[in-house]
Amino acid sequence: MERGMTADELLASLWRRKALVGAITVAVLAVGTAIVMTRPSMYEASVVVRVEPQRPGEEMVQRTVSELIEQRLLTVRQELLARPVLQKAIEEMGLYPDTVSEKGMEAAVAKMRKDLTVRVEGETAFELTYAHPDPEVAERVANRLPALFSEETLKLRQAQAARATDLFNDEMVQMGKAVSSWERKISQFKVDHLGELPEQMEMNMRGLERVSHELQTKSEELRVAEARRSDLARARNAVDSEAGRLEAAENGLTRALVNARTNWTEDHPEIKRMENELGAMTVQRKEAEGRLWAERAERARVGSLIGAIQKDIVDLQQKAEVYQSRLNNTPRWAHELAVMNRDYEVARTKYQSVVSRKVEAEIAQELEAKTSKSLFNVISPAGVPATPARPDRLTGMLVVLLVALGLGILTGAVLEMRDDSLRDGTEVRQRLTLPVLAVVPDMQGKTERRVLMPSQGGRNNVSSPSSLN
């Protein structure tokens, strides 16, 4: 049966069981002391690293790896405790050989994570602390980890910058193909609709005006030529009659001369006169025939001229129709060409933007390779620790002592609470409902006895045997 107890009762119970309490306390103290004293000493080496801002700034060169210092400090612990950095440190410096051989690299990395502590210091720095049983190893690892972290970060940032450059390069190739495709389409469109393009509209209008003016000129020339041909046609009959009349007169005069020669000699005056008239008549006939041939040639020339003018007029009318057709089709092709030019300008603008971004990405990649090496600056290198950081043996001993005393007291209290023995009259009166007639104390070898005797008024009187004689 369990029961409560006061502080005095607790002290009394502990005193009654002082041997057991002492034994438990001593045993726990001995075990705890052995544990505390046998724990290996761990030495801690700390290094402080400052994160340098990127130079030049974003306003001068657009970075492809844009991570603020605050973001870098928030992720530095996860990156430092990542497997690539820790595995490289374990392999390079031969850490945890037993763990690596027995449980593998993953277990060694997990153990090293427990020995590493990363704390952000201020706004631009962090502190790295490494614990190891060997102080020299602790110092060497603490100073090497920032360099390994910087190398891994450099590789990561360079890979990010290279991916950005490759992405812009691929996009530039695709956009270049699109721009070239639009250029070919526009060139072919201009070839297919040569002369009907909007930029050729003014030329077509001037050509139409010139052809119209030439048509007017040719029409006037045709009118003049046709008038000339009419005049030649009217004059042809007169010329033909004159040549025929002169030829008939010449023939008649020739016959008369032949008859006269049969009658007279050559010296006769009449023969001379008729010869002279015949010569003059022949001359007139030849002149008339010459004029007839000239008029015929003129008529032929005028006819050819009229034919040429008519042909020129037909050609000019065809040219005018071509120019007019071009002018009629120009608005239609202008709309289609405007749509194509708009899409081409959009593609070209995107291409130029991608080219510009690619150039910036290449510059940023070069700057990243040059500036990332100075991204982390060790401002306080680690030294060889002289005293172990843990365990704190004095504190451990105090804790062991308190635990030993607590277990001893707890054991005595539990045993007392589970003990049903009655040790004095007070416990008898508290725990029994019957009236107490007498209490026989533990004499512990003494001959003195006390007798509880009833007295007047219902009270009990206690007296010794000597007083009862």
TrEMBL record:
Pfam families named among the record's database cross-references: Wzz (PF02706)
Presence of the UniProt keyword Transit peptide in the record: no
GO CC terms: plasma membrane
Localisation per UniProt entry: Cell membrane
TM ranges: 20-37, 394-415
Membrane protein topology class: Multi-pass membrane protein
Principal cellular location given in the protein's record: membrane
This protein's record includes keyword Transmembrane helix: yes
Domain Polysaccharide chain length determinant N-terminal: 9-92
Keyword vocabulary terms for this entry: Cell membrane, Coiled coil, Membrane, Transmembrane, Transmembrane helix
Coiled coil stretches, renumbered: 208-235
UniProt xrefs under InterPro entries: Bact_polysacc_biosynth/exp, LPS_length_determ_N
Identification of the protein by name: Chain length determinant family protein
